[in-house]
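ARCHIVE CARD
Drawer: 12
Card no.: 0347
Subject: one protein chain, sequence and derived structure
Cross-reference: see card 0346
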Amino acid sequence: MRAAYVEQFGSPDVIRYGDLPDPVPGPGEVLVDVQLTTVNPVDTYVRSGRFRTPVTFPFVLGRDLVGTVGAAAEGFAAGEPVWCNSLGHGGRQGAAAERAAVPADRLYRLPPGVAPEDAVAAVHPAATAHLALFTHGGLRPGATVLVGGGAGNVGSALVTLASRAGARVIATASPRDHEYVRSLGAAGTAEHRTPAERLAALAPQGVDLYVDTSGDHDLDTAVALLAHRGRIIVLAGPTARPVLPAGALYLKDGSVRGFVISHATVPELADAATALNTHLAQGLLVPRALEYVPLSETAQTHRRLEAGELRGRRVVLSTA
């Protein structure tokens, strides 16, 4: 099969595109004929060695795939459309190949009528958003949520899922994106790095859940905005070292929790998948902008992502 893989950690220059042996499914695995995959920031962390996780070289890159079942196994029928968003780490080979052996408990059926390209672009950021909001954030209807970076891939999913769950959502974004973020369900918008006192006017009762995808990690602002027992979910920035105003956090009974989807359990991922399939079937979680390239352009896509050229856009890589 053709695959995008590495034989050592390093820059995008270490990525190779060529032939590897077909995967042989083991017990509890399903062979999938991959149609589409994509590239996430965490894929670049794994490739570079910044995110330490068990790998076996040659190592196929990539988390996400949409494809069809290659041979009946583990309750899946041959030809069924399926998706996965947790390959390429934890000892599992990745999705950037013509075929993949996927653990059955990490493989989900694609709902009828959902475009494969929409699904493959959405399942990683939307699962991240679901887990941040509900698994780690304890979101309840009626809560106020502030989403930092609401127009990005994860940010837009956060706005969509939180507003659909009955929360009041405030989002920061560039002014040109305010209309888009409101169309997703945000009740209020502000520019990035808006002072806390101005943001507070949009949430006079305080913020129950603060989720920042921008990587700024302005904990002074976040803590200042928290309601009593408000929560801050830290999503991004493995090298960030923000200052925590511990006294103010203490006085609010507040909490800060780090979260990375790579550590999500199989049941947590399955719970997120059920929710995502419902939203996908309803026509939600549609990516704002897609770009299509062949799988052979995996290295170039890694370069572009690391250079900051793909903000708010998703590249879909095809094996065809």
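Annotation on reverse: The CA atoms of residues 32 and 70 lie 5 Å apart. The mean pLDDT is 96.
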